[in-house]
Each structure stands twice: as C-alpha cells, then as structure tokens.
Specification:
Elements lengths: L4 E3 L2 E4 L4 E6 L9 E7 L6 E6 L6 E3 L7 E6 L4 E6 L8 E8 L3 E4 L2 E4 L7 E2 L3 E6 L1
Parallel strand pairs: 2-13
Antiparallel strand pairs: 1-3, 3-8, 4-5, 4-9, 5-6, 7-8, 9-12, 9-13, 10-11
C-alpha cells in the first residue's frame, strides 16, 4: 500500500513562503502523478496543482496560480509545493495524492482528475497564514 507523507506546513505571516513536501518511504513516486489539494474549514477540497508522472508536466488549478510551483526530486523521491506570497485565505490542510495521471479522458475530452478519483492520499499538513 502506497503511503504518502506530507510535511512542511506551519504558521506563516501574510506574504510569507512555505515549501511542502510529499514523500513515500517504500514506493517510488517517479512515474506517478502527484497532486496537491487543500481543504479549508467549511469548504470543499480543491486541487492546487498536479505534476504528471509521464513527463513531469505541471498543472495549476486554483487562485494560487502564479504563487506556487510544484516540482519533483527523483533522487529524494519527493514532490514539493513551493508557496509564495501566502494569504490568509490560503489557510487550509494541504494533502498530496497519487495516481496514474493528472487527467482522465472522458466524453471525448481530458479533464482534471477529481478528488474521489485519486487512489492514494496522505494525512495532510496544516498551513495557517496570519494576517
């Protein structure tokens, strides 16, 4: 069973930066799509970004676009989410998820994989941005 572990969350001031890490101890993440999701209190979980397992293409989904970068370090078996210029509305629990691809081909078109469609999830790491 692939177990994902997130780290790097914490308390940061408005405008600050954090780098989250997602790793797995017994399985290689190299060929897997890894997505970062977040869930704020009282809100639905939303995808932040995804990195493809096929060619490391990256996709950015939310209002964090332009303020975050997803990357993969194959030697460390780790996927990172660098978040800059953080805002209080970025406060959430951040999760990484893994599956075979960032997108699914349905109805003749590609669409982002939904949260219910990811097979593996980590336990999450809390990010709190103070104003």
């Amino acid at each position: 069973q692939l177990q994902l572990v997130e780290s790097g969350g914490g308390l940061v001031q408005h405008g600050g930066s954090l780098r989250l890490s997602c790793t797995a101890s017994e399985f290689s993440l190299e060929k897997r799509a890894i997505a970062w999701w977040r869930q704020a209190p009282g809100k639905e979980r939303e995808e932040v970004s995804c990195i493809s397992g096929a060619d490391d293409s990256t996709y950015y989904r939310t209002s964090m676009k332009g303020r975050n970068t997803i990357s993969r370090d194959k030697a460390k078996n780790t996927v990172y989410l660098q978040m800059n210029n953080l805002k209080p509305e970025d406060t959430a629990v951040y999760y990484c998820a893994a599956d075979s691809s960032c997108h699914l081909y349905t109805g003749g078109t590609y669409r982002p994989r939904g949260d219910q469609e990811y097979t593996y999830w980590g336990q999450g790491t809390q990010v709190t941005v103070s104003s």
